[in-house]
Amino acid sequence: MGKYFGHATCVLRPRTTQQVSEIVKYCASRRIGIVPQGGNTGMVGGSISLRKEIVLSLGAMSNVRSFDPVSGILVADAGCILQSLSDHIAPHKHIMPLDLGAKGSCQIGGNVSTNAGGLRLLRYGSLHGNVLGIEAVLPDGTILDQLSVLRKDNTGYDMKQLFIGAEGTLGIVTGVSIMAPPAPQASNNLFLALPKFDNVLPLYQQVKGQLGEILSAFEYIDRTAYDMGVKHGLGPILNLDEVGDAECFVLVETSGGNNTHDEEKLNILLESLMSADESLINTGVLSQSPGQFENIWALREGLTECVQKEGKPYKYDVSVPLTDFQKVVDQVRERMISKGLYGDHGITKVMGYGHVGDGNLHLNVIAKNGYRPELEEALEPFIYEVVASHKGSISAEHGIGSMKTDALRYSKSDVSIQWMKKIKQVFDPLNIMNPGKVLP
Ligand code: FAD
Ligand code: MLT
Ligand code: ZN
């Protein structure tokens, strides 16, 4: 994003957990701060050395330790790239329980540390459920071996849960044990143009009702985001005349066990949508080939990169009730207009896309000509206040990093923050593990 700049003068790339432990012991003895770094694809400045802490990059720890094709349990070094893990288990007809646009660079340790959500969460749930165990190096150099391959283990406090989403503040994740579901035998997708945002929820209800157990993703793209994607060479997926003045788009994916059965369900859904008296959609397309399936996903997954091409993005990743999704985007645009900050001299686009099925909106505000303090002041804390007024979360999936430490209070009570600080103190009394991140 060109928003965060690291100040590390030293990057270490250990190859083994033992080496990580030795580095951490050395740093603890000299109170040297450590920033764990995975693929560096995070969005909130979490993997950046703010005050010359050393960077501990996990990239050289990239071995798969084991995979059991019967249980689907995969044990891997934290530095394994998500796509490589998918490729590793694909011949055994399994998939990773998470998928995201950054899959070619992000690492499983980074995914666990950010509790990444992504495009499959609707179907396979969050990493809090899919991660079975972790191995971590604690801030004094001790190796915590909880690399369980058990589905069930009710033996007291579940320590691994603390590391899922800790963003490197409690220790360095060096190994992950994760449950990989069987690969679906059939995957299809539909791309739909909707005349108005108000149709999204009734559509979601209808899609859930008609597709039932085969529904695996329900993603949202507003018109501004769609047009931006097309402008940068993604799609167009739909015929422009048929799209008309559609306000937004929805990508529906199914993953099932029988292609004939799934296609039949999808065709019936599309037909019933098209032929309804007051149709919820303007038009839609059901992918007819693996290439078209990929193109539809490429549009959704490519939006993050298009946003960077448009200018400097202020990115907000919030959870709000589904009915309020577009209201939040509109409120932000109206504010920038009313403050005289909309236009080439300031904000040029405000758009929303995201994981509707999970209630997760990605609000992107683009400054074509660069970041400026007065733009940030107009956006923050305004956006956090809007989100809090909708009883939402200021970070649905990207985390807190260094970007939102002061905003944490909008989503966590004083008591919660106090206890988070106590937990941090127990693990990391010297405050060497990713200092300045997550906690205010
Ligand atoms: P990094 O960016 O390197 O680090 C992220 C944080 O985790 C930092 O605080 C770092 O210190 C810590 N960390 C990293 N590795 C370790 C470790 N081994 N031990 C301890 N701490 C560690 N996120 C979503 O949730 N859903 C999405 O759909 C999604 N899509 C994305 C699409 C694109 C194109 C991009 C660029 C990013 C996307 N993200 C998404 C953001 C996201 O958080 C991640 O990409 C990913 O989970 C971060 O992994 P990473 O290895 O790059 O971690
Ligand atoms: C996404 O869902 O595309 C990501 O979380 C990245 C983004 O917010 O741009
Ligand atoms: Zn996302």
TrEMBL record:
Cofactor(s) this protein cannot do without:
FAD
State if Flavoprotein is listed as a keyword.
yes
Pfam families membership: FAD-oxidase_C (PF02913), FAD_binding_4 (PF01565)
UniProt keyword annotations, A-Z? FAD, Flavoprotein, Oxidoreductase
Tagged with keyword Flavoprotein: yes
**Domain of life, source organism:** Eukaryota
Q: Which InterPro entries does the annotation name?
A: FAD-bd_oxidored_4_C, FAD-bd_PCMH, FAD-bd_PCMH-like_sf, FAD-bd_PCMH_sub1, FAD-bd_PCMH_sub2, FAD-linked_Oxase-like_C, FAD-oxidored/transferase_4, Oxid_FAD_bind_N
Instruction: Give me the reactions it catalyses.
Output: (R)-lactate + 2 Fe(III)-[cytochrome c] = 2 Fe(II)-[cytochrome c] + pyruvate + 2 H(+)
Recorded GO CC terms: mitochondrion
**SUPFAM superfamilies this protein is in?**
FAD-binding/transporter-associated domain-like, FAD-linked oxidases, C-terminal domain
What Gene Ontology terms describe what this protein does at the molecular function level?
D-lactate dehydrogenase (cytochrome) activity; FAD binding
Q: Which residues form the FAD-binding PCMH-type domain?
A: 4-183
Please give the family membership noted in the entry. Belongs to the FAD-binding oxidoreductase/transferase type 4 family.
Q: What is the name attached to this protein's record? A: FAD-binding PCMH-type domain-containing protein
